[in-house]
Amino acid sequence: MRIAVTTTLSADDEAARNAYNTAFSQMEIDWHWDATTYRELLADGGQPVRSFVERHRPHLLRAYGIDCLVNAVETTRRDLSVATSR
Questions:
Q1: Rounded to whole angstroms, how far apart are CA atoms 71 and 5?
Q2: How many CB atoms are closer than 10 A to CB 29?
Q3: In the chain, which stretches have pLDDT less than 50?
């Protein structure tokens, strides 16, 4: 049996991915998530920032608490979203 893997994100997931990339840029973090990366991070359980750091930037955990990193990115993403919806 073969399982089909979708290669596209929903419109909501694509908007969220773009919001994360905007937050990274605003925070001057050199991360950029393409659709494939974002889909993989969502498959890890729905906490993409935590999953990304643990999988791709574990060295940051020597200097920062994971919750601090997640909160900083999520707060920036939320603040940017609120600012653009006004």
A1: 31
A2: 15
A3: 1-5
